[in-house]
Design brief:
- The chain has 367 residues and is α/β, with parallel strands linked by helices.
- It has 2 domains: 19-80 and 91-154, 3-Layer(aba) Sandwich (Rossmann fold); 161-357, NAD(P)-binding Rossmann-like Domain (Rossmann fold, 3-Layer(aba) Sandwich), CATH 3.40.50.720.
- The chain has helices spanning 2-14, 65-86, 107-119, 134-141, 161-180, 197-208, 220-230, 259-264, 281-290, 298-301, 304-310, 318-326, 328-342, 346-366; strands spanning 28-34, 39-47, 53-54, 57-60, 91-98, 124-125, 189-193, 212-216, 233-234, 247-250, 269-270, 294-295.
- The strands form 2 sheets. Strands 1, 2, 3, 4, 5 and 6 form a 6-stranded mixed beta sheet that branches. Strands 9-8-7-10-11-12 form a 6-stranded parallel beta sheet, with helices on both faces.
- Bound molecules: nicotinamide-adenine-dinucleotide.
- Nicotinamide-adenine-dinucleotide is lined by residues 160-161, 164, 193-199, 216-219, 222, 251-253, 273-275, 302, 305.
């Protein structure tokens, strides 16, 4: 026991910063503090080879600063790969504000945060994430232009959720095509877990394709409303992973794919909006591959939202948004084929293709 503690202490001493947590080639991590407003924030810039880092700000009551740092490191890296695989000229970044969004968020705090974003001179663009809404981004916009997800009246691209749902639907159809040989969803039993902003629109698309849609949520009111509107079945069992289904669409929380759930899962396809669905990206990606389940990588198929906000940085029309989001279908199919040819999981395949794009651009930039 003592030697274990010593070993950990020695490790921290040797690599107190870059050797810890989820540091993984991050370019910059900025700690922002302001006593007057109570702001404590961390901005993580993972990679800017393809363009300025873009990613939302999350306000959360983290158990510790350590947890907050770990979260921003993990999330900012995810944004790098999401932008790269989608073909956008954006890097990956993210910010976290430590605190309770319901009780500790004030206009002064948001503006002060915006001032810190401004000091980065456009290396990082912020946006909404958990605990933030459009009004918060509008406040940030009063002190810096380096923000997206602002109101439509002041040049914002509008609600990203419908376009995110469309991308998820494209990815789901591509995964079905790969697994079942057809992307016709008629009669396929699809369980949508989480029928919030994205999940509900996905239910709409699936219903229009005559899929057999089953919905699960912890919010009874939403279950009633969505079931009534789309005539979908409400899941009433104790554990969705005991349910027979063709397709599982996680649209609520991350990390639902773990040792226990994968062991039980009967679906042949997984495609949903939730971020970080694999509790452990290597271990659980491999378990899914071994079970012959076609898993559409989350960061690829939920990119509709970032495609949408991209138009706040570069003038593009609705048609471009739709076409780029539709292309998620082709990319998802390519990923499955690439994974099969190279003995990789679909998640590893998507990461490696994204990394290749970054490496190629880095070479070009040097020449
Ligand atoms: P939301 O908050 O509108 O909806 C989430 C829904 O999940 C809610 O109805 C909630 O009651 C339900 N839920 C929570 N815990 C649950 C549980 N344990 N079991 C079943 N249901 C549960 O969120 P959203 O905007 O629809 O996003 C859904 C997911 O997609 C999130 O993980 C989000 O990070 C991700 N995502 C969203 C977007 C977007 O554009 N909104 C973009 C990319 C990724």
């Amino acid at each position: 026991m003592t030697s274990e503690i010593l070993e950990k202490k020695d490790l921290i001493k040797a690599d107190p910063v870059f050797g810890q947590l989820s540091f993984n080639d991050h370019e910059q991590v900025v700690f922002c503090q302001d006593k007057d407003t109570g702001l404590k924030a961390i901005i993580g810039i993972h990679n800017t080879v393809l363009g300025p880092a873009l990613g939302g700000t999350r306000m959360w009551s983290y158990k510790s600063e350590w947890d907050a740092l770990n979260d921003v490191l993990r999330l900012s890296r995810g944004m790098t790969y999401k932008a790269a695989i989608t073909g956008l000229n954006l890097g990956g970044g993210k910010a976290v504000i430590i605190g309770d969004a319901k009780t500790e968020k004030t206009p002064e705090l948001m503006k002060r945060f915006g001032e810190f974003v401004h000091t980065l001179g456009g290396e990082y663009y912020t946006a909404e994430d958990v605990g933030m809404d459009t009004a918060d981004m509008d406040l940030v916009r009063t002190v810096t232009p380096y923000v997206t997800g602002i109101s439509e009246e002041i040049g914002g691209a509008g609600n990203p959720s419908p376009i995110t749902a469309y991308g998820v639907f494209m990815g789901l159809k591509a995964a079905a095509k790969y697994q079942f040989g057809t992307d016709d969803l008629k009669g396929k039993k699809v369980l949508v877990q989480g029928i919030g902003h994205v999940g509900e629109t996905l239910v709409d698309y699936l219903t229009k394709e005559d899929a057999n849609v089953v919905i699960a949520d912890i919010n009874e009111e939403r279950l009633q409303a969505v079931s009534k509107q789309y005539n979908s079945t409400i899941y009433r069992g104790a554990d969705i992973f005991d349910e027979e289904m063709d397709i599982y669409a996680p649209c609520a929380l991350g990390a639902t794919l773990n040792d226990e759930s994968i062991a039980k899962l009967k679906a042949r396809v997984i495609a949903g909006a939730a971020n970080n669905q694999l509790a452990d990206e290597n271990r659980h990606g491999a378990m899914l591959k071994d079970k012959g389940i076609a898993y559409a990588p989350d960061f690829l198929i939920n990119a509709g939202g970032i495609i949408n906000v991209y138009t706040e940085l570069e003038a593009r029309d609705r048609d471009w948004i739709t076409k780029t989001t539709e292309n998620i279908y082709n990319t998802t199919l390519d990923i499955f084929k690439h994974a099969e040819q190279n003995g990789l999981t679909s998640h590893q395949s998507a990461l490696s293709i994204a990394q290749q794009r970054i490496n190629d651009r880095k070479k070009q930039n040097k020449n």
